[in-house]
Amino acid sequence: MKIKKWQLQDAKNRFSEVVRKATEEGPQFVSKHGKENVVVLSMEDYHRLNPPGSSLVEFFQTSPLASVELDTNRDKSPARDISL
What CATH architecture is 4-62? Predict the structure, then answer.
């Protein structure tokens, strides 16, 4: 798959083509000031990445980081010395 990159102005002027290519050829990357900012995806690609009905909880449960142990204890001391 050849990745297509568009400058923002070109993407705005040729938006129908960007959408068609996203549907037929795959994700289309749009850059602003030389930095990639957004990706235009087909609904098929979007649903593959974000299945309908999935929740944030399900996302975290299926994440590769789900088994990582986090230290949730926090320092209870004041953030700064409040004595004058």
Answer: 3-Layer(aba) Sandwich (3.40)
